[in-house]
Amino acid sequence: MAYTISFLCVIGIAIGQILFKLTADSIQKTGNYLDVRGLTFLFMALVLYGVTTLGWVWVLQKIELGKVYPLMALAFVLVPLGSHLLFGERFQLHYFIGVAFIMAGIVITVKA
């Protein structure tokens, strides 16, 4: 159960980053930091980060930090994937090689 919650925390962090990008895009488009759309995305991101933080604290009560923290590296995979799907960002072969190393590192450290 704790690993499931930790994975949900990582997903929450990744979604929060996408929401921050949507905030930045909205501000850039309107030139207004008080734009309702941008503030809505920002508020959603901050709430999500708050909930995720509470979940992470719960996880840390159940699992050693050194064992669960490597899962946070999944955000380095999920955020670019989300940016590709939502913003059309493109990646080079080097990105996929890096993702493979990250995934291998996560597997090695979690099983250690």
Keywords:
single chain, mainly alpha, 112 residues, flat
Binned strand content: under 5%
Summarize the helix and strand pattern as letters. Answer: HHHHH
Roughly how much helix do the residues carry, as a percent range? over 70%
Tally of individual domains? 1
> Which structural class is indicated by helix and strand composition?
mainly alpha
Low-confidence stretches: none
Strand count, sense and barrel status of the largest sheet are: none
Task: Report the total helices.
Answer: 5
Radius of gyration: 16 Å
Coarse shape = flat
Cα separation of the termini = 19 Å
What does this structure look like?
With 112 residues, this protein is mainly α. It has one domain (2-111). It is built from five helices and no strands. It is flat.
Question: Summarize this, please?
Answer:
This protein has 112 residues and is an all-alpha fold. It has five helices and no strands.
